[in-house]
Design brief:
9 strands, nine-stranded antiparallel sheet, 141 residues, mainly beta
């Protein structure tokens, strides 16, 4: 069983055995670099972040926890406010979501082989709507 299959199995099993609703949160550290293409490819100081992964039923939830520009949250869940989609495949684990009102999107992907993360998040930055692109390696626990 590969690394990500083990993560999902552990999260799902712990959910079934210990919590009827939420699975245990799997956490992984990543060293990310950010850039804002709309602002002449402005680079953002690299940052150590934590990626949190959970499942609930058929839905996958991923969150990058860092400073304001390094925080990204996405899930496969569709609600009145967001449309979510699971992007998980044999090559990667990922989710994307779009805010129905603002059109802002967020996406988190982790490549299975290299454990490289890429993510983006649409935000208001200095009065402009911009997309923040993040990428970097993660460390298997």
């Amino acid at each position: 069983m590969n690394f990500y299959a083990q993560i999902l199995a552990a999260v799902i099993c712990s959910s079934v055995l210990s919590h009827p609703v939420w699975a245990q949160t799997f956490k992984m550290s990543c060293e990310l670099e950010g850039v804002i293409p709309a602002l002449d490819d402005r680079k953002i100081k690299p940052e150590q972040v934590v990626v949190e992964i959970q499942t609930m039923g058929q839905n996958l939830f991923m969150k990058v926890v860092g400073s304001k520009l390094y925080t990204v949250q996405a899930s496969s869940l569709t609600t009145e406010e967001f449309v979510g989609k699971n992007l998980t495949s044999q090559k990667l684990m990922g989710v994307t979501r779009k805010n129905k009102t603002t059109g802002f999107e967020s996406e988190i992907r982790i490549e299975r082989e290299t454990v490289m993360m890429t993510a983006f998040n649409d935000v208001e930055y200095r009065g402009k709507s911009v997309r923040v692109l993040l990428s970097g390696p993660c460390i298997r626990p």
